[in-house]
Design brief:
Helix content is about 45%, strand content about 5%. By secondary structure, it is mostly helical.
């Protein structure tokens, strides 16, 4: 746990990263990132990282505060999928993390370090079977 905190700079104390995983995923995307991904980008409860990068990482020069917040949420979701919560597919991120990004000022209160470590162990078990 100390290694995760030291190497990734993530909190190992605070609020747990938990919650339901049965959402209307398209509605959740509209609510949190302002767009419904096409069917080929939304795979069950996951979103393809390539689509996220192409469609959500570009911020207009003249942007509103809401566009900036949406950009931050998409960027953090991308970091979760690429750096913190990798799976063996390597090309998708689970959308269950989106509600945790609803209030950007609260994102740092969660125990991302413990979650990252637990996810790593789970994916290691999946990879060997």
């Amino acid at each position: 746990m100390e290694d995760v905190a030291f190497q990734l700079g993530l909190h190992v104390d605070g609020r747990p990263v938990t919650g339901p995983t049965y959402y209307d995923w398209e509605q959740m995307c509209v609510e949190y990132i302002g767009i419904v991904p096409p069917e080929n980008a939304l795979v069950g409860s996951t979103l393809k990282l390539k689509w996220l990068k192409v469609n959500m990482f570009n911020l207009p020069a003249e942007h509103t505060p809401q566009q900036l917040a949406t950009h931050y949420k998409a960027y953090i979701l991308g970091l979760i999928g690429v750096v913190l919560m990798l799976d063996k597919s390597g090309d998708r991120v689970h959308l269950m993390y989106l509600p945790l990004l609803a209030y950007l000022d609260r994102v740092g209160r969660y125990i991302w370090g413990s979650t990252c470590l637990a996810h790593l162990y789970r994916e290691m078990c999946r990879a060997i079977y």
